[in-house]
Specification:
Blueprint: H1 20-44, E1 50-53, E2 57-64, H2 76-93, H3 100-122, E3 133-138, H4 147-164
Antiparallel strand pairs: 1-2, 2-3
Helix pairs in contact: 1-3, 2-3, 3-4
């Protein structure tokens, strides 16, 4: 049985030219997510839904105890544990990244996961990690969501594109001298 080993692409620190997009993207997503959620709670609490961009985008504040599309309702602690795992895995493998595009993609996931995890911690009406995520953006015939959800969904699309293009996140760096 082979022991799991962490891929070593660079041996660099967590802050290096490849990982810089990861940390900057994660921080930007987290800040934008937190600012918009604080605004949404202040401006939309006890208010009826209102049109923001015609009837295309509405502002409608809800608490979501599930995941995207309200999947996993009532499983906030399990979703929180999964978020901790994802955050830890991204940090653990960060120095192994060989692609700035994957770093950006994982930065979107990290920022989104942190944003929604902070909600689950701070918006708890019950036990630890039992809180609801603040959602406030509504499209017609679509579940209500937030900026963290947009970041994670965008990352999923980017990950599919990068995988189709056979751009690897970790591994040996290609020798540029060979072409």
């Amino acid at each position: 049985m082979r022991r799991f080993e962490r891929p070593q692409a660079s041996g660099l620190s967590l802050w290096n030219p490849i990982t810089k997009p990861l940390w900057i993207t994660a921080l930007a997503v987290l800040i934008l997510d937190r600012v918009t959620k604080v605004w949404a709670v202040a401006a939309l609490t006890d208010q009826p839904p209102r049109d923001f961009i015609g009837s295309i985008l509405r502002l409608h504040l809800i608490g979501n105890a599930g995941a995207a599309f309200s999947v996993g309702m009532g499983r906030s602690a399990l979703l929180s544990a999964f978020a901790f795992f994802v955050i830890g895995a991204i940090i653990y493998f960060a120095t192994s990244l060989i692609s700035k595009r994957w770093a950006l993609t994982l930065g979107l996931v990290l920022g989104g996961a942190l944003g929604n995890l902070i909600d689950r911690i701070t918006q708890s009406k019950g036990g630890f990690l039992e809180g609801e995520v603040i959602d406030f953006l509504e499209l017609p015939h679509w579940p209500i969501f937030n900026l963290a959800d947009i970041a994670v969904s965008t990352a999923a699309v980017l990950a599919i594109i990068l995988s189709i293009k056979n751009i690897l996140p970790t591994g040996k760096r290609p020798d540029r001298r060979l072409g």
